Amino acid sequence: MLEAINLSKEYNNFSALNNLNIKVKAGDIYCLLGANGAGKSTTINLFLGFIEATSGSVSINGLDVSKKNMETKKYLSYIPENLMLYPTLSGLENLEYFVGLANKKYTKAEFINFLTEAGLQTNAHLKRVSTYSKGMRQKVGIAIALAKHAKVLLLDEPTSGLDPRASNEFSNLLLTLQKKGVATLMATHDIFRAKQIATHIGIMKEGHLVESFKSEDITLKALEDLYLETIDS
Ligand SMILES: Nc1ncnc2c1ncn2[C@@H]1O[C@H](COP(=O)(O)OP(=O)(O)OP(=O)(O)O)[C@@H](O)[C@H]1O
């Protein structure tokens, strides 16, 4: 579903990402941990085709992002820390607009069902997004992923700034998408959430993926210790 092979990114001889190899399959939730500047966002941005790789390749659903950038967009949804939605439109209108860009057609009732499935309260569907909390905006992002039938979800610190309840709700929504076979790659600083929902965890440092393992193979305490050991070494 999502694959990076020998992927590197340099900025004027500075190595932001060095020879990354990673595979995220359908139903996997892969969490990338690492200190500020470790290369997590660079990785996500390369999958999104926002930036060009210096070397190596990145593919989504078997399609090389550098060659089929537009086509890969059909399969993916992206939720950053601050999801860009139109503030003067309602959640429902934003959903209709962004899903329309993906050429998917639904009735109003179906769009409303996606918002409901994403956990957005009914009384908020028709309100302007400018009145939404961050957690509510993230739910619109999940509704877009549901309606697009996204196969791949790219997340860059999506729970940063969410209160514990909203963060927990968001995690549960990711598990719902996982059950539908979505492959998720998430950059996060939240070790607890990573351990809670990830199938796989990677720890990055200075552009290198220095640790990669299955979440079930490590306890939260051991993960915390390994994380600190890794970034301090
Ligand atoms: N456009 C750019 N030009 C120069 N250097 C860049 C550019 N974008 C990123 N970098 C550098 O690449 C490195 C990796 O940055 P990246 O944003 O991927 O880190 P990150 O792990 O996502 O960090 P954070 O947790 O702070 O979001 C950093 O040293 C950063 O300063």
Automatic annotation (TrEMBL):
<dbReference type="InterPro" id="IPR051782">
    <property type="entry name" value="ABC_Transporter_VariousFunc"/>
</dbReference>
<dbReference type="GO" id="GO:0005524">
    <property type="term" value="F:ATP binding"/>
</dbReference>
<keyword id="KW-0813">Transport</keyword>
<dbReference type="InterPro" id="IPR017871">
    <property type="entry name" value="ABC_transporter-like_CS"/>
</dbReference>
<dbReference type="InterPro" id="IPR027417">
    <property type="entry name" value="P-loop_NTPase"/>
</dbReference>
<dbReference type="InterPro" id="IPR003439">
    <property type="entry name" value="ABC_transporter-like_ATP-bd"/>
</dbReference>
<keyword id="KW-0547">Nucleotide-binding</keyword>
<dbReference type="Pfam" id="PF00005">
    <property type="entry name" value="ABC_tran"/>
</dbReference>
<feature type="domain" description="ABC transporter">
    <location>
        <begin position="2"/>
        <end position="231"/>
    </location>
</feature>
<dbReference type="InterPro" id="IPR003593">
    <property type="entry name" value="AAA+_ATPase"/>
</dbReference>
<keyword id="KW-0067">ATP-binding</keyword>
<protein>
    <submittedName>
        <fullName>ABC transporter ATP-binding protein</fullName>
    </submittedName>
</protein>
